[in-house]
Amino acid sequence: MAGAGSTLNPYVVSAVIGCEDVRPCISAGDGIAYDSSTGVVSADLSDQAGNNIAFGPDGGLFVPTGAATVSTGCGLTGDGSGSAPLTAATGTWPYECSVDDFGGVVVCDSNGVLRSEPRGQVSMTRYAETRTYNDVEVPSGAIQIADTFSTSITNPDTCRPAFVVVEREVDTFLVLPTGAGAATGFDGDEMYYTRNSGTSQINGAHSQATKVLAGGTLAPGASMTVSFGATVGRGSGGAYYYRIIGIIRALMISL
């Protein structure tokens, strides 16, 4: 210490501390490196995989814009860097229609997996029943319903409505004594008529009639009843029926 402590000659305190005494203190935290042999303090860059920080050409810390941060797999290309951005690997739209108007969608499910639209479904259900009767005489007037057949169908697609095509078949078995005649069909439509012009009774006269009709649209997972009436009429000469077979087939298409 120098000086006398007066105004004109104040005390002066001087001390010399080497860099080697200071640097260990300021480099005691994370992110800083200290070389005790040289006394140099520097940034400590992690060697952890995926770390993109580096020293720039001016000596400062530098993280490249768009540095790669992802690993790609099926359906993805690029590494996420500025020169190779991450993109989806797509094909070429091969159809005449516009992809903007008719292209499907791809969504992410609850597990983070990409999913496309539901697959189309086509299904068919069949109902068939044979009913016997105690020799019921065919009415002589206009054709009328003798019995009704029905079944319930359900759209198995719980995502989309189904277009329904329904096929109905009816087969009515007749006994026609000599000179007798009768007509059969369904839903008020006469589709078969025969008359016995021979000299002996005809047993088991019948003809299988079929209609295919659009059944409309069925909502996802919904059910509907499909039915038809077996009809008889124009009976004469003691004609009667004793058996009717009803068949219903439903084709459901959801795309």
Please tell me about this protein's structure.
- The chain has 255 residues and is mainly beta.
- The chain is 5% helix and 48% strand.
- The protein has helices at residues 19-26, 99-102; strands spanning 32-35, 40-43, 54-55, 61-62, 76-77, 87-88, 106-108, 114-116, 121-137, 144-154, 162-176, 181-186, 189-195, 202-205, 208-218, 223-236, 240-254.
- Strands 9, 11, 14, 15 and 17 form a 5-stranded antiparallel beta sheet that branches. It has a 4-stranded antiparallel beta sheet with strand order 10-16-12-13, with no helix packed on it.
- β7 (106-108) and β8 form a beta hairpin.
User: Order of helices and strands, N to C?
Assistant: HEEEEEEHEEEEEEEEEEE
Instruction: Look at the structure and give the mean pLDDT.
Output: 86
- Report the helical percentage: under 10%
Largest sheet: 5 strands, antiparallel
Please specify the SSE layout and strand pairing:
Layout: H1 19-26, E1 32-35, E2 40-43, E3 54-55, E4 61-62, E5 76-77, E6 87-88, H2 99-102, E7 106-108, E8 114-116, E9 121-137, E10 144-154, E11 162-176, E12 181-186, E13 189-195, E14 202-205, E15 208-218, E16 223-236, E17 240-254
Antiparallel strand pairs: 1-2, 3-4, 5-6, 7-8, 9-17, 10-16, 11-14, 11-15, 11-17, 12-13, 12-16
In short:
The protein is mainly β and 255 residues long. The chain contains two helices and 17 strands. The N and C termini lie far apart (97 Å).
Task: Label this structure with key terms.
255 residues; mainly beta; 5-stranded antiparallel sheet; 4-stranded antiparallel sheet; 17 strands
